[in-house]
Amino acid sequence: MSDSLKNLHKPGLNYSxxxxxxxLQLLFLVPLVQTAWAHGAIARSEKNLIFEAAREDxxxxxxxxxxxxxxxxxxxxxxxxxxDCLDRIMALLQSMTVRxxxxxxxxxxxxCRRIAGSAGGNSSMDVSSFISSEEEETLAExxxxxxxxxxxxxxxxxxxxxxxxx
Length: 166
Prior knowledge:
9 helices, disordered C terminus
């Protein structure tokens, strides 16, 4: 495991942050954070949707996990952090059944699309018209890493070609 995944911490606080099983639900929220930071700032609507996703994933609002998530929404993590987290997510996905893996990848990319579209308007509408070019680029990067379509959550073209799913 890389150093950035072993010791994610808040400056000034005396604790280290390691990715253990009890904290994995936070790991699956990192692509949402990455998407929200795509254009250099996080809108209130993006932050609200990320915390809503955290509650859906049973991250208690009064927990240290929530504090860490809030920190990432105030202080932009490094690009290396986001890349390392996507690598870690992909490694964890390999231990799941195909059905579980595809469902989780679809959930992640759909949440990312909702985050990306939320800053430009009503998140219940078709979000594609509100997504900036920076967010599209970030969505494409996340989708490519997850080997899934950024548009509809289906297995990505690269994966279809590699595995003959045409």
